[in-house]
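TASK: fixed-backbone design
INPUT:
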């Protein structure tokens, strides 16, 4: 920060370049933040079915084993995880 003050004192016109760079940096930050928020939303939307499936599987694990449906739940879980990985 001190070097910036010295540079502005020595060459006053440099403040215009500094202000321009700050404006460009803020605009780039806002643009990237929008993309980040969209990616976070998409990841949350694809993670929700995985957590729901996990909860259903844990609560019904004895019934799933009794009817020998483990492979069906494994395949559904793999499909949900793949969808989540693709979205990320």
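OUTPUT:
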């Amino acid at each position: 920060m001190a070097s910036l003050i010295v540079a502005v004192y020595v060459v006053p016109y440099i403040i215009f370049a500094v202000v321009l760079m700050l404006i460009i940096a803020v605009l780039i930050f806002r643009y990237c933040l929008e993309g980040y928020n969209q990616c976070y939303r998409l990841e949350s939307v694809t993670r929700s079915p995985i957590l729901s499936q996990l909860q259903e599987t844990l609560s019904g694990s004895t019934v799933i084993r009794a009817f020998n449906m483990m492979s069906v739940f494994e395949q559904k879980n793999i499909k949900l995880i793949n969808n989540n990985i693709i979205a990320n």
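COMMENT: The radius of gyration is 26 Å.
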